[in-house]
Design goal:
Elements lengths: L1 H13 L6 H5 L2 E7 L21 E4 L1 H9 L7 H7 L9 H10 L1 H11 L1 E3 L9 H27 L3 H18 L5 H21 L9 H5 L17 H34 L25 E5 L2 E6 L11 E7 L3
Parallel strand pairs: 1-6, 2-3
Antiparallel strand pairs: 4-5, 5-6
């Protein structure tokens, strides 16, 4: 019974960031238009997780609990889902801002939790009904964080967008330390969804390069290794695939930021990833091999196959185009 329940949750969470059912079942193909951007000065200027010196001596768990309790009842899920798939230049800023204002208490609590040094979850058992309720609330939080980041990116408020991404990645990572696998899977889903907002970020003409910020993220980003040790082999395999897909997503974005760095110095896309020598190029962590890359004229493809034994939905493909201005 538990195995079936967890499998259902994995499917639900894996589909959160998919635009359509077809996308949830097939390899994801993403077209990105890149602008050459050099590394920030200093290189460590931007961070996607808070620095130790920024943290205060407090426990984040009560703040996360208050955040879920503060969610408004009239959640406009369909409208928000539509906005999360709307091109940034067509995003209705005023309408989005009104929705975000309704969630302001929740967002403030999440920001406060981001700066806490500890995250000590209670060890008490949680029943399936409670887990499903928590899943619904955290799904709402994921959507609101993503919507806020998307609006900030659209408005060119990049420092604020990075803060929102940091709040999201911190929560995702901390959910991995919660006592249930379901909470950890919510963490994986949160981080994966925010990686999609990073794809919007790196396409903006004047957005800073986040190569070093991505480089500094831990691998695995959301580590469920310990909590799945007691699970059935099939569950362990499914969870590991989710973790690997997230880490692959982060590594691919780091590669793309390295390509933007190369373009800033050379005025073109690299013919091969090995042409990039100023920074290190990460391997695909899902298969522990280099990403596949090839350039065709003014475009390039960065891709990775599905891991052995996995379905096509675990493959990825980025179609890159450079826009010099």
């Amino acid at each position: 019974m538990k195995c079936t329940f967890v499998s259902i949750i994995i499917l639900l969470l894996a589909g959160i960031s998919a635009s359509t059912q077809q996308e949830a079942e097939q390899a994801r193909i993403v077209e990105l238009t890149l602008h050459p951007v050099e590394a920030p000065e200093p290189a460590q200027r931007y961070q996607l997780l808070p620095k130790a010196e920024q943290l205060r001596d407090a426990n984040a768990v009560p703040l996360y609990e208050k955040a879920t309790q503060s969610l408004p009842k009239n959640f406009r899920r369909d409208q928000i889902s539509q906005w999360l798939n709307t091109p940034l230049d067509k995003l209705p800023s005023q309408e989005v801002q009104l929705i975000l204002q309704q969630h302001e208490p929740t967002l403030q609590l999440l920001e406060q939790a981001d700066k806490c040094k500890y995250c000590n979850w209670p060890d008490s058992e949680v029943d399936e009904d409670q887990l499903m309720e928590d899943l619904s609330k955290y799904r709402q939080i994921i959507f609101i964080l993503a919507l806020q980041a998307r609006l900030q990116i659209a408005q060119g408020q990049y420092a604020k967008a990075i803060d929102t991404l940091q709040t999201s990645f911190t929560m995702a990572k901390r959910l991995a330390t919660a006592p249930t696998l379901i909470q950890g899977l919510i963490g994986v889903s949160t981080a994966a969804f925010m990686c999609r907002q990073l794809e919007q970020f790196i396409q903006r003409t004047d957005a800073p390069n986040l190569y070093w910020a991505l480089q500094n993220l831990p691998r695995p980003l959301v580590d469920l290794t310990e909590i799945i040790e007691l699970e059935m082999p099939d569950i362990r395999r499914k969870v590991r695939l989710q973790m690997d897909r997230l880490d692959r997503h982060v590594a691919a974005l780091q590669c793309i930021e390295a390509i933007r760095l190369y373009a800033a110095n050379n005025g073109e896309l690299p013919n091969e990833l090995s042409n990039i020598t100023d920074v290190a190029i990460p391997d695909d962590p899902a298969i522990e091999k280099p990403f596949m890359y090839h350039r065709t004229g003014s475009k390039a493809i960065l891709e990775a196959p599905a891991p052995e034994g996995a379905t096509a939905k675990y493959a990825m493909r980025y179609e890159l185009k450079l826009k010099n201005e």
